[in-house]
Amino acid sequence: MVQSFLSLQNLQKQYGNYIASNNVSLDVPKGCIFGLLGPNGAGKTTLIRMITRIIFPDSGNILFNGTPLTDTHTERIGYMPEERGLYKKMKVGEHLVYLGRLKGLSKAETIQRMKKWLQKFEIENWENKRIEELSKGMSQKVQFIGTIIHEPDLLILDEPFSGLDPINSLLIEKEIRNLKNEGKTILFSTHRMEQVEDICDTIVLINKGQNILCGGVQELKQQFKQQKMLVRFNGILPENFNNHFEVLEQHENEVVVKNKNATNNELLKYLIENQVGIVAFKELLPSINEIFITCVQEKQA
Length: 301
Fold this sequence. Notes:
The chain is an alpha/beta fold. The protein folds into two domains: 4-222, 3-Layer(aba) Sandwich (Rossmann fold); 226-284, Alpha-Beta Plaits. Helix content is 34%, strand content 30%. The protein has helices spanning 44-51, 92-102, 107-120, 136-148, 166-181, 193-199, 217-223, 241-244, 264-273, 288-300; strands at residues 4-15, 18-29, 33-37, 59-64, 67-68, 77-80, 154-158, 185-189, 202-207, 210-216, 228-234, 246-251, 254-258, 277-284. Strands 6-7-8-3-9-10 form a six-stranded mixed sheet. A hairpin with a 2-residue loop joins strand 9 and strand 10 (210-216). Helix 2 (92-102) crosses helix 3 (107-120) and helix 2 (92-102) runs parallel beside helix 4 (136-148). It is globular.
């Protein structure tokens, strides 16, 4: 059984008549990258604020590594909010030392870790620059360092790639993977589904304050598959091909088929018997973006 590092149990949060969190329960396994997804206004930020104890649930429990969440746990949490919180007039080095000290590090230890990360990100020359002089992408790097400088056990990253070019996105992604390999647990919130599919192990989909879908990325792709097959071929298809199989898309030397009444083996056998030169034959699984849209639209219907 996979150990749960963060457990949300029946969390309820209401503002007047608005229910921001409606009996949400989920378990975040230890040492994984866990995607927190949902449309705007779904309740993701409310959950994050309850985990970081910025606000408190009206009812329900939060367990941190098996024990009830308290203020003492916040030093073991690193939170990178979507709305960046850097002080523009401070210098980069001063700011990172300040953040490290807030998390209980000594000044000497903070400086040592800061210099290591500045060097790793190739921005050591920016230590004495003011935050207001940085580009958005450079500020993002500084914010990321400030989030992880105290080596937290739980990282909450809200849109960590915002403002980054492809090269720096890969750099941050590499470090996120390294942190996972070190045993850190990462709660990752974003609207960029391609990144979710690429780096997350497990996801939860929140909509209208409720958990409407949760599971492993590959498991969910299998769960929502629609029996679609992509066939690339040489030559031409038999004239009666459309009478046997439901064709969704067809281009020169490529066809997408939905097998309602035939198995993949039957499709393959048919093509071989009709002497179709097969170049590629593979199942098309839905993307996380397609699953996201399907689930949200079904909830709204």
